[in-house]
Design a protein that fits this description.
0% strand, 78 residues, mainly alpha, single chain, 5 helices
Length: 78
């Protein structure tokens, strides 16, 4: 419901039919959207020791994929 109504309302604002978008914050008001602070608490990054152990294991067990895992860790993708 939210994406459709928000998109229609945005189009109506763009076209000058409405002054404001009544569905703009609907997801947050109905709690469809998780607050950023909550999402941040749920993120569990590797500790330095876990990172080291993971890379050592990757180099030993799957040397072909080691550069890929290293890239992911360097770019903070995992």
């Amino acid at each position: 419901m939210k994406p459709l109504s928000a998109g229609n309302s945005k189009a109506a604002v763009d076209d000058g039919v409405l002054h404001t978008n009544p569905a703009e914050k609907l997801g947050r008001q109905l709690r469809f959207v998780t607050p950023a602070s909550t999402r941040q608490k749920e993120i569990k990054a590797f500790t330095k020791e876990q990172r080291r152990l993971f890379l050592e294991t990757a180099a030993r067990e799957t040397p072909r994929y080691y550069p890929f895992f290293l890239l992911l860790l360097e770019q903070k993708c995992v």
